[in-house]
Write a structure and sequence with these properties.
Blueprint: H1 6-11, H2 24-34, H3 40-48, H4 63-69, H5 77-84, H6 96-107, H7 114-117, E1 132-133, H8 135-145, H9 152-155, E2 170-172, E3 192-194, H10 203-221, H11 231-244, E4 248-249, E5 254-255, H12 257-268, H13 284-294, H14 304-315, H15 318-327, H16 340-343, H17 349-363, H18 369-376, H19 380-389, H20 403-414, H21 419-426, H22 430-439, H23 443-469, H24 475-481, H25 483-492, H26 494-503, H27 509-538, H28 546-552, H29 554-557, H30 567-578
Amino acid sequence: MGADSIGQLFDDGLQLTWLPDELLFSLASRYHVLSHNVQASQTCKQLFGNSRQGCAHDFPSRVDCFVDRTRGGFGDSEEVIRRHTILPFYLPFQSAGSGALAVSALRGPSVGSLKFQLGLLTSRFRAHHPLKACLECMRDDRVNFSVAYWHRAHQLPGVWICLTHHSPLHESTLKSTGVGRFSWLMPHESQLRPTWPVGAPGEDRRLSALKLLAEAATAITNMPAYAQVEQDRLLSTYRRGLREMNLLRGNPGRLALAQLAASYLSFVQPLTCIAEFSSLPKTLTEALAQVPRLVRMDCNATHPVRHLTLMVWIFSGWKKFWDEYCSKTDDLRRPERDSPEFLNEPQSATTDARRSALLALLSTGNWSLSGAARHIGVDPTTAMAWAAQVGISTPRRAKTLKPELFNRLVEMLADGTGTGEVAKKLDISATSVIKILRTQVGLHQAWKDARYDRARTRARNAWERVVTENPRLGVKAVRTLESSAYAWLYRHDRSWLVQQVSLLQQASPGNHAKTNWDQRDVALAASIQKAALDIANEQVSKTVTLWKIYQRLPELKSKLNQLDRLPLSKLALELGTRKSGNSD
């Protein structure tokens, strides 16, 4: 069959439609079987117009070409991507611009560096998205549809249990392991393996946590198109949940680190026997280092699976988390047009021209402020703010605020009090407060200076408190525990921070690094030895090759270029493959 004859194939009566919750890769694999193509490249070229691009099971490219070649019979590009790939799982955690670029990457000729742009390559979570299947679903699908196929819901990151049968998913030994990378395949029991060792401790807690994670991952993936998880609201929701758990105390709120870390560790520890969750904390020390950072960091820079674990741990499931997330206005709102923060945003060229024209008219002494404002077409309040910025004061209308109230308002703003708090305490509108802040000469700058002083004091105190409470910690550990204070000090008070850092006893990174690599080496070497022995026992007459070992240990492949730092693992590989006389 020619590379361009797919249209003829459908015209000749090939019946192929989406199965429920089917992955695009699954549909293409079924087409490969039905078309009787001998080589995978034939199918890829017929469906995607290229012998290799488009065959990825997680982020397939050339979707526009697929839609064109199938004459739109399976939906348009947006529909195919959003309903039949795993990309929608990541989109709510991306900015609107990044999300649009990700969708464009799948529609275009190559996904390029998409995994890097999504933060997968630097997240310490696996970026290869192994194919997964439920054995019970496979049996049901063969009865109902005459074929077992790949369900999209099973492929989502963080999903390791079937929500229909509540049974563990099995992981494919092909595609994501590098074996059969460009192949088309359907799920089969002979190519699937259990996800975690039989008899691993904490089975009941593991299955319970996996059910919650699967429900959350599915809900996130099924969110409306272009929906976004807002960072400020997300972190605020976490903090409200932690306060309800009595793990955030006082005002504005201080984490009860020891109890918090112990609780989080108890939730995630049963999951760490699953390769995808291996970067989650396994000890209390690791939990103490990870959790404070998680509840403060940018959601766009954090792998969504980390957020899933926090959501279902803090709120015992997706529904309660989402209800809480949607029920409150952001505690930390983005600047709005009438807020003082908005005044600091860059102004457009049109605004600059109007501002210059206004100041020119006022400088003549022949124009009142209101008359000049009307002449150039701006609001009088805006004109008053522009005038105040260059030191031109304007008469205040006495009937607006009584002198005592006005003076109290100015004092509070000059002291750095937030505009919302001032409005609440003085029982006046926030608009009035902001208007005074903008129009009184020198007040806005005094307010910003006072806010800066408050922020500096808060950051310094936070840093000093951690150092005092943990005198043996080095710079890296203190920075981890108070990452937000460190970031603020680094940007705004660096000279003080440098001085404080010099006073700390430096942690010895070399020893810690060596210990870390030694631990990895011992664990990996043991896994390699076990895998090689299992392969040798199961395939007595066949050779034990490197690709067979990393087919069983997908994490090994990424460490092959680091074997100089893993001598035990290197030796285990040499011995394991030497027995067969083949190390290829």
